[in-house]
Amino acid sequence: MKEIYHVKRSAVMRVETHSAQDTQALAASLAPVLPAGTWIRLEGDLGAGKTTFTQGLGKALGIARAIKSPTYTIVKEYDLEGQAAPRLIHIDAYRLEEGGADTVDLASYRQQGDLVLVEWAQFIETELPTAYLDLALSYGQEVDDRVLTIQWVGGQEPEWLSQWSKEVSDHAR
């Protein structure tokens, strides 16, 4: 039987998953430790699992409705009942490649303590906070395999991330 994930730890954490369900389970394991106000930059090719990761995190945070990529709407907001953060904000900045980030009030999400996940963040780079979790997804060897490269950007890695990383590593053994 294949393990759910395989982890290599250093300043950068590398996790391999073997199905969409495994990727969602990894995201769900992050939910209990993720503090309000955290931004996650999701990087990866089309179909690499950015929205799949968001779905796993959202479900673990109690979001019952379907979470789909906000490709055409750019931003989707989900209320979080009984969580530290008031909302989960899912941004797909792909359509902002030619500009227009100023039409989306990204600063308000920082001020309100929302959890924010941004796909295609390279198109709104100047709008990102100074510190965030960078999560890059890429294809693995098999069709359903994904490699997630996770690191903190912008200063000292927070204790919650170190703890989660250790828990994921312990789970993989």
Number of helices: 4
What do we call the CATH homologous superfamily? P-loop containing nucleotide triphosphate hydrolases
Structural class: alpha/beta
What percentage of amino acids are in beta strands?
A: 25-35%
**Main beta-sheet annotation:** 8 strands, mixed
Q: How many β-strand stretches?
A: 8
Mean pLDDT: 87
The shape, in one word, is: globular
Give the CATH class.
Answer: Alpha Beta
Helix and strand pattern: EEHEHEEHEEEH
Unreliable residue runs: 1-10
How many separate domains make up the residues?
1
Assembly classification: single chain
Helix proportion range:
10-25%
Overall CATH architecture: 3-Layer(aba) Sandwich
- Lateral arrangement of strands in the main beta sheet: 1-2-8-7-3-6-5-4
Rounded to the nearest angstrom, the distance between the terminal CA atoms is 13 Å
GO molecular function, one term: metal ion binding
Organism: Abiotrophia defectiva ATCC 49176
Family: Belongs to the TsaE family.
Pfam families: TsaE
In short:
With 173 residues, the protein is an alpha/beta fold.
Please, could you describe this protein's structure?
InterPro entries: P-loop_NTPase, T6A_TsaE. Belongs to the TsaE family. One of its GO terms (cellular component) is cytoplasm. GO terms for molecular function: ATP binding; hydrolase activity; metal ion binding. One of its GO terms (biological process) is tRNA threonylcarbamoyladenosine modification. By secondary structure, the protein is α/β, with parallel strands linked by helices. It has one domain: P-loop containing nucleotide triphosphate hydrolases (Rossmann fold, 3-Layer(aba) Sandwich). Helices cover 24% and strands 27% of the residues. The chain contains four helices and eight strands. It has an eight-stranded mixed beta sheet with strand order 1-2-8-7-3-6-5-4. A hairpin with a 7-residue loop joins strand 4 and strand 5. Helix 1 crosses helix 2. The two termini are 13 Å apart. 37% of the residues are buried.
